[in-house]
Amino acid sequence: MGLVTRKKVLSIMALCAMVGLLLFPVVVSLPSLAIGADAPDAAKKEDAKAEKGRDVYYKTEGVVAGAPAPKTVDGPRDYPRYNFESRVLLWFANQQHLYYGSFVLAVPLFCMVIEFMGMVTKDKALAKRYDQLAYDFIKISLTAYSLTAVLGGILIFTFLTLYPAFFGYLSSIFRPVMHIYALMFVAESGTLYIYYYGWDKMKEGFLKWIHLSMSVILNVIGTLLMFLANSWVGFMMSPAGVDEQGRYLGNIWHVIHTALWNPLNIHRLLGNMAFGGGVVAAYAAYKFLASKTDEDRAHYDWMGYIAMALGVAFLIPLPFAGYWLMREVYAYRQQMGITLMGGLLAWLFIIQATMIGILFLSTNYYLWQAMGRMRGAEKYQRYIKYLVFILACGYMVFITPHTMVMTPAELKAMGGQQHPVLGNYGVMSAKNGGINVIITTTVLSFVWYMRGNKVSTVSWAKFGNIFMGVFFACAYVNIIWLAILGYYIPANVRVGLSVPQVATTLSCLFFMFALNAVMMKGAKQMGPIEWGKISARSQYALIMLATAFTWMMGLMGYIRSSVRLFWHVNEIMRDNSPWAYTHTVGFAANMISFNVLFFWVSILFVFWLGSLAAKKAPVEVKAAVPGSAPQPAGSH
Amino acid sequence: MGQTIVYGIISLVICVAYFTLVDHYLMDMQGLDYWYLFRK
Questions:
Q1: Residues 6+ apart with CB under 8 A from A151
Q2: % helix / strand / coil in chain A, to the nearest 5?
């Protein structure tokens, strides 16, 4: 058997092994299903005797198959503790695990996309660069993967040590899928290692497609893992599959598929991708700033741009996914929605709006700076000030609070809790307008960047340019018009206006990107993109972007968790520990900042470890690193 | 110049029609009336 054929056979075997690993948890869970299927008579007899309960969410009847949720009391049995607030310890362990988990789930998704781009591109030099970039990405995530597993262990021990009653209850509910989760984790690890170590062996032809298939499987496993973890969070917020005493009713799908599961899945998937892109972009920025040669600067500049573009591609739909989640929260329990957005936690949403604004401002700033490295983009420079004005207006409306926290004297001076002018901007109608204006402007900046050094050569270029300008102008007018219309119509009609507003923004994104791509096909290039010739300020913008992502993830996690107030499992299992209260905004902000700082210090350590491995790499491997010189335009 | 104006008007007509349709149908799909303010 020839060497190539043997490699093919081994690759196909590896792929089959991965598919097997993916299906393994399902196969393992079959016997338990089979027991139920083989014994219908016995089940019927049992049914006659067994106590029945009514599902709190699905309202269906089921046979009680579990113990009620424990009624905990403050003491060493239910809440053993160190001489410290247990909730803060758990918060820290959970947040760190989540940061690393998000990162290692997002990066393989990037790898898959970039590896695919490398395979389908016709330019061989560019294909090599994409492949090397994908390899660099997975290399970064590998060390982080080990740390994620360690942090997962720490999290479980923290649960077992500090909240044994609650953890016992939760694991009793999710028992039918607990082992599946563990096995999926094994499958994920196995697949990741084969994917990484098989990179060089499967770098060409058919074997490369097998390698790409492995990344698809890797990401399917990773995403399923995340969905399973989300089901625990969803259950804690909006329990289903149990009766009002918290007794499991035998239907694990009901327990998993709670009211908030799907919105959480989408929101987290997009959030992870945006976060992963931000972290890799920050890594590239750090390497760029530390680079001593033009070759390195060119490579890391390009890497930072690709990571940022991928991150922002998922950031743009993220607010809409968040909106859907909030809508489902309101649909599930109106009171929960009010606590979030109009009550106890409303001020945290103002901070969130500030962070979202910073994310988009940083992205736009980076793109404007990046236009400096291409000849021909100067024509857009004089218009940037108008974009700054539009962004600033949108941002200020977006972060305006409805009411202010004030002293009695200030309250009297202002004539009420609401400012007579600015208070008008503190409602959702205005805020929806604000954020959509910001996102549309970001789309416009991207379009300008993509056509920066090009001149369209299609015969209808003039009409295309005018149409594009008019489309963006009309989109702005429509968004602002809908925001104003919201003030004059009843709340039940107003609530629907956000949908056409979002559709307007997405129309700009999809239609204008498509139109631009068609117009720029075969375009005349004014000059190459001079990778590496970008201001240092742009790289700080990337670091800012990543830090803002991290901070916002910490904030939103806290908000989502706090909305349960004094419940471990909403309306089912009460939190009777001394910490069943909501922290002050200041304390929460400090804690989030500490988590962010710890994550960045630890991930810098991971990057440093990665750089040690790179230094020991053979010379020929390093010499093969692409992107060593400024590359021609067209790679964006 | 004349051509620019013609292109501008054509673009404006297409865009206004498109966004009006988006507003109308997306509100209609939710069972809501986009023209509520003008009817009252």
A1: A93, A96, A97, A100, A101
A2: 75, 5, 25
* Distance of alpha carbon A482 from alpha carbon A430, whole angstroms: 9
Which residues have C-beta within 8 Å of that of residue A361, sequence separation ≥ 6? A391, A395
Range of the domain at B21: 2-39
Structure-block tokens of residue B28: 């209609």
Residue positions counted in chain A: 636
Q: Per-residue b/e over B5-38, b at no fewer than 16 CB within 10 Å?
A: eebeeebbeebeebbeebbeebbeeeebbbebee
3-class SS string, A276-291: HHHHHHHHHHHHHHHC
SS3 A202: coil
Q: Which of A474, A490, A497 sits opposite B19 (nearest CB)?
A: A474
Q: Is A383:A590 a contact under the CB 8 Å cutoff? A: no
| Count of the separate structural domains present in chain B | 1
Comparing alpha-carbon positions, the chain B residue that sits nearest to A478 is: B19
Contacts of A493 in chain B (CB under 8 A): 27, 32-33, 36
Alpha carbon A370 to chain centroid, angstroms: 24
* Confidence at residue A44, expressed as pLDDT on a 0 to 100 scale: 56
The candidate with the shortest Cα–Cα distance to A606, out of A152, A132, A283, is A283
Closest residue in A to B13 (Cα–Cα):
A470
Rounded Cα–Cα distance for residues A394 and A430 (Å):
9
Q: CB A170: neighbour CB atoms within 10 A?
A: 20
Element (H, E) at B11: helix B2-29
| Partner-chain contact A470 B15, CB within 8 Å | yes
- Tell me the per-residue pLDDT of A426-470, one tens digit each, with 9 for 90 and over: 888 899 999 999 999 999 999 999 998 899 999 999 999 999 999
- ipTM of predicted assembly, 2 dp: 0.96
DSSP class of residue A105 equals H
Q: Which residues pair with A61 in a beta bridge?
A: A54
Q: Is A154 exposed, middle or buried (0-12, 13-18, 19+ CB in 10 A)?
A: middle
| Cα–Cα distance measured from residue A557 to residue A272, given in angstroms and rounded to the nearest whole number | 12
| Position A343 confidence tier, pLDDT thresholds 50, 70, 90 | confident
pLDDT confidence of residue A26: 62
Residue of A465, A477, A499 to mutate, interface with B, max B Cβ within 10 Å: A499
Nearest to A496 among B11, B14, B27 (CB): B27
